[in-house]
Design a protein that fits this description.
Oligomer: single chain
Strand content: 5-15%
Number of helices: 15
Protein name: ABC-2 type transporter
Number of strands: 4
Keywords: Cell membrane, Membrane, Transmembrane, Transmembrane helix
Largest sheet: 4 strands, mixed
Structural class: mainly alpha
Distance between the termini: 16 Å
Strand order of the largest sheet: 2-1-3-4
GO cellular component, one term: plasma membrane
Number of domains: 2
Main location: membrane
InterPro entries: ABC-2_transporter_component, ABC2_TM
Order of helices and strands: HHEHEHEHEHHHHHHHHHH
Amino acid sequence: MSRPHKPSLIQLFLREVTLVAKDHSLLLTLLIAPLLYAFFYGSIYINKEEEQVKLAVVDDDQSRLSRLLQQQINNSQLVELIHFSDLETAKEQMYSGNCQGYFYIPRGTQSNLLTLKQSNVVLAVNAARFLPSSDLLMSVQQICLTVGAGIRLQYFEKSEGLSRTMAMQNVMPITLDYRPMFNERSSYGAFLLPALLALILQQTLLIGLSESVAGERQQGSIKEWFKAGISTAIWGKGLFYLVVFGAYGFFFLNVNFRLLNLPMRGSGFQLGVLLLFLLFTLIPMAQFIGSLFRSQLLCLQVMAFSTYPIFLITGYTWPFESLPVPIQWVSMLLPTTPFIKIYTAIVQSGADLLAYAAALLHLLLLWLLYSTACYIRFRKLARQSKVHLD
């Protein structure tokens, strides 16, 4: 009596192609969502930096210094000054949301500064919106320090008769040489977009593959799928996702990065190797998660809901060390955590893959964990479905 035919790895790959082509939900998730999300979210942050943030200004000093301050601030690409005659109106404009803050120059500012007395100007910003307030503070503070130092430099040269070098030493005994590395403009878009593209790649794979496995349970096709054996079943289905999302990864790094003008300082080959490690870890993880659901729709809803929490706890938007300890434990179980650490270092600072050997080992251990969990879970499902395994 001949043994029943066992599907090969390639046959299971082709079977998955057919399943995806027939399932509109999978087709949308796998073939449309990654590109749509990548270009849509990328277009939101394509300018990377804010421009022309409105700042109300009230000048009670009406001096050459106050006009110089306003001119320098207004020349900044970041700030757009709106002039008001009294402080109450400027405050009202900020409270109404028409401006992101106000800049007040009190009477006597120039005369105090010229006599080396303390001179205060007021910058009030709407900190409820963190990004505009932070950008306004950085820009206005730098201009005020520069203009103030220039006035004091003139005082020491003219009144004290000091040379330019001696006067500069009195004005600025300690000079800060501020050099932001890698993200030179300190722009929000350049910080966020590389990780966002990686998250889109990860989540669409997790959602699509887990949904496919849940669909196998829902439609009762587990027996057909498991005929080839557990390992072949896992990687026969996973091969399709490895090919598709490997292509997406190549496309993002070569097309989206260029269109969005994102830096790529590291080795493309090393980044490709890292991406393969991530995909190999995500494939058994997604199949294990999908095997926990009997409903394809419920699986889709749960996995879609997980996207934002996963992004928040990986240590990218908030330092990993500052997360609550239980959240750190959960984060350590996510492949995103070690991947993002290595990925951003390669992309933004040109780091070497082997320089992050501990994070790479972490990713490999997660691959082993999820591969083992997936294999054990599938053997249990095979026994429940009465599938004969050699």
